[in-house]
Amino acid sequence: MLKLIKNGEVYSPDYLGKKDILITGNKIGYIADNIEVPKDFAPVEVIDAEGKIVVPGFIDSHVHICGGGGEGSFKTRTPEIQLTDITTGGVTTVIGVLGTDGTTRTMTNLLAKARGLEEEGISTYVLTGSYQIPVRTITGNIQDDIILIDKIIGVGEIALSDHRSSEPTVEDVSKLAAQARVGGILSGKAGIVNIHMGDSKKMLDILFNIVENTEIPISQFIPTHMNRNPYLFEEGIKYAKIGGYVDFTTSTTEKFLEEGEVKCSKALKRMLQNGVSKENITFTSDGQGSLPDFDENGNYIGLQVGKVTSLYEAVRDAIVEEDIPVETAIRVITSNPANIYKLNTKGYIRENMDADIVLLNKDSLEIDTVIAMGKVMVDRGEVKVKGTFEK
Q1: Among 72-81, 186-195, 346-355, where is mean pLDDT lowest?
Q2: Minimal CB count within 10 Å: which of 83, 139, 155, 354?
């Protein structure tokens, strides 16, 4: 059945004004000021978007889809994510990653979970590896993983400046990035290296060194958790102003914010005020990963679980609380990750792109309807499609 979204104000993410959008199968077929489909042509499901803002489906490019954590022993391993944990947050595309635990969470587990979520209705990709170097792969080689396995588009998350890292050297990270880069070149993928940043005062030293002393471009890396403390955030401004990408984590706790974590909405505003390109900033949720709390000696004292739903909440805060224009704010979860990770059919509302679309109530900016690959997953706030094991 064809779907016709009528009378919505469309942000592609650039503002297009009031437009109608015709969805044909899993693609955006046609966009125009007014579309009328003859009733005898084919069955058409009309979605009235009057009073709604229409934006691209959200991309969450850092999600622990098969669970994460474990910093407090086996009982603190977080469970696998469920479909509606994702779709109720307006997310239609996820990139799955491993984290601290690359032993009981495996690459084959990650890849299988990604394929399962895609069977349930959303788009998925994964990164090979985990915190530690040498990284965990499927084929035994980073470059081969990226070239030969369709869903693997890069490497990560690799831990730097963190007491849980494998203490990699500049040479270690350089060789890893070189493999990822060549793998991406040969397969038409991004080959991005996702870097987990910890609290160490070494901060981005290794990445600055690589950029200054090797042929690997700064665009090969995307350091995440860059809002975790004030000094790392300030370092991130310098890094982004020379062309680097920076990613802010939306899942947080009141304690983390009280201790100096920079709220994502404020981080976005301050980056823009400091002259950072709006195209070099992304938000990710760290969904289903653990948010572990450690004392000053590095001892575990508790954790919470990241939520994918925090992704759009942070963007909404940027619009409502920080007066950032809608078309700028939504880039950090739509076109920017699509461009960085070379997801060429994602992140925009354009003809022939994937039909991943979110309708927002114009007055409240709350999520109303979520469409993934042409299928309505959430309709006026009501979940229409649940995961296989969801009640």
Answers
A1: 72-81
A2: 139
pLDDT tier at 277 (50, 70, 90 boundaries)?
Answer: very high
Q: 332: closest CA among 261, 254, 260, 269?
A: 269
205 is a catalytic site residue: no
pLDDT tens digits, one per residue of 278-337: 999 999 999 998 887 877 777 888 888 999 999 999 999 999 999 999 999 999 999 999
pLDDT of residue 42: 77
Domains and CATH numbers, the chain: 2-55+347-383 (2.30.40.10), 58-341 (3.20.20.140)
DSSP letter at 199 equals S
User: Residues annotated as binding site for Zn(2+)?
Assistant: 62, 64, 196, 225, 286
Backbone angles phi, psi at 10, to 5 degrees: -100, 130
Distances (CA, A) of 355 to 13, 25, 153: 14, 8, 21
Contact indicator for 349, 367 with CB cutoff of 8 Å: no
Q: What is the DSSP string of 277-325?
A: -GGGEEEE--BTSEEEEE-TTS-EEEEEE--TTHHHHHHHHHHHTT---
Q: Look-up: residue for tokens 């925009």?
A: 348
CA-to-CA separations, 193 to 6, 18, 133, 244, 330, in angstroms, rounded: 40, 39, 12, 12, 23
With 90 as the cut, is the pLDDT of residue 55 above it? yes
Query: What is the rounded distance in angstroms from the CA atom of residue 142 to the CA atom of residue 129?
Result: 8
Tens digits of residue pLDDT in 198-217: 999 999 999 999 999 999 99
Q: Which residues contribute to the annotated binding site for substrate? A: 69-71, 100, 131, 164, 228, 290
Asked if residues 127 and 94 have their Cβ atoms less than 8 Å apart, the reply is: no
Binding residues are 62, 64, 69-71, 100, 131, 164, 196, 225, 228, 286, 290
- Sign, CA torsion 169/172/178/183: negative
The residue annotated as part of the active site, out of 20, 286, 317, 368, is 286
Using alpha carbons, select from 316, 338, 202 the residue that is nearest to residue 268: 316
Please check whether residue 193 is in contact with residue 158, taking contact to mean a CB–CB distance below 8 angstroms. yes
Q: What is the pTM of this model?
A: 0.96
